[in-house]
Known about the structure:
Helix 3 packs antiparallel against helix 4. This protein folds into 2 domains: 4-41, GTP Cyclohydrolase I, Chain A, domain 1 (Orthogonal Bundle); 53-184, GTP cyclohydrolase I, C-terminal domain/NADPH-dependent 7-cyano-7-deazaguanine reductase, N-terminal domain (GTP Cyclohydrolase I, domain 2), CATH 3.30.1130.10. Strands 5-2-3-6-7 form a 5-stranded mixed beta sheet, with helices on both faces. It is of the alpha+beta class. It is elongated and about 60 Å long. It has helices at 4-17, 30-41, 96-107, 113-125, 143-146, 164-167, 169-181, 187-191, and strands at 53-55, 61-72, 78-88, 92-94, 110-111, 133-142, 156-163. The N and C termini lie far apart (44 Å). It has 8 helices and 7 strands; from the N terminus they run H-H-E-E-E-E-H-E-H-E-H-E-H-H-H.
Amino acid sequence: xxxxxxxxxxxxxxxxxxxxxxxxxxxxxxxxxxxxxxxxxxxxxxxxxxxxxxxxxxxxxxxxxxxxxxxxxxxxxxxxxxxxxxxxxxxxxxxxxxxxxxxxxxxxxxxxxxxxxxxxxxxxxxxxxxxxxxxxxxxxxxxxxxxxxxxxxxxxxxxxxxxxxxxxxxxxxxxxxxxxxxxxxxxxxxxx
Length: 192
């Protein structure tokens, strides 16, 4: 549970600590706004959605470009990007919206990209649907690296394999190739 009163007090202290006046008109409501924002962007600590499965119709399921926004646990600055997931069903496929909610659950916490990638893979792999394999690719830009420190807008890529993807290099290569080529329709094809 988010303690909004503690957040408001902490934000007020930060405003004072950087030499600003927390009673200045533009800042007076900032502690409340930050507390409200944190309640939303850190909702991953309270998310308990269950996975929904459907009858098996596919040898491999791929979800591409799941957008996420998270906060780096080292500097409490945003990092954001996309996640691609490939998995091999084991009797049932998992509801697509539930997989997106798993991404949101872990992204809406103080995070490290590599840990988040592994948590997403582990939750899908260890779910009651127990897919034969899961592959998660996360691509992100980190504001802590863009606006401070080295000031470099590089894209960081983290990849996690579970199950059959750890054992079968041909299958792993096929999944990575499909992800790299952007299988499926482009947005313009669907819209236009």
